[in-house]
Amino acid sequence: MDRTMNVFNEEPRMVVCISNEKDSWFPNAELLEVGKIYHLTDVYRDSWHTDVVISEFPDLKFNSCTFRELEDGDISLIDLIPYGKDNAISRKMLVEKADFYGLIPNNVRSKDRYTRKLLQKAREDNVIIAKPTGGYYIPDEDDATELAVYIATEHSRALAIHSDLVMANRVFEDMVHGRLKKPERRYGD
Question: Which domains does the chain have, with CATH numbers?
């Protein structure tokens, strides 16, 4: 694994924190979480060191040695979904970002369908809410009402699906055991 960051690349991008030990060379490092992906916005090269700015702490500078470049496998779909309903990302934008970061194989027929599969997988370990007006987000502390509505809606859907499955299983058992009879129709053919 390359433990460095390309300080000559001044493009905004995502980088990974590799150290949060604070000393005189690494100011503010204790605010970072090792292994977390951050959004680099600016690079300030000096003759003997390089500082960077990340969008998560826009008023602070960090030593570039605190980060490394992203590698394959560093980013997953959950990293592309913002926190808070006001920051929701549209499915179209989520598909574009997932494609940009290489999460979607080149040979898939539908990038949208593949992204929905990635969403389903991400929901195994995360709560991801889809806004009725469009967009996905991870609820934060200000989204308790939306989370309660989401829970009630999903609970209702689960009960309806369970009810449908119970009936389908009954009909299947009747079919298998020769007990299924066509009901007489009251109207029409």
Answer: 13-69 (2.30.30), 77-137 (no CATH)
Which residues, 6 or more positions from 52, have their beta carbon under 8 angstroms from its beta carbon? 5, 15, 40, 42, 43, 44, 61, 62, 63, 64, 67
User: Which pTM value belongs to this model?
Assistant: 0.60
User: How many helices (H) and strands (E) would you count in the chain?
Assistant: 3, 7
Round to whole Å and give the CA distance between 14 and 75. Answer: 9
DSSP assigned state of 131: P
Amino acid at the residue 28: N
- Report the chain (189 residues): mean pLDDT per 10 consecutive residues: 76 86 82 88 90 92 90 83 92 91 86 95 93 89 93 94 94 89 73
How far is Cα 55 from Cα 68, in angstroms, rounded to an integer?
A: 16
- Report the largest interatomic distance among the alpha carbons of the chain, rounded to a whole angstrom: 89
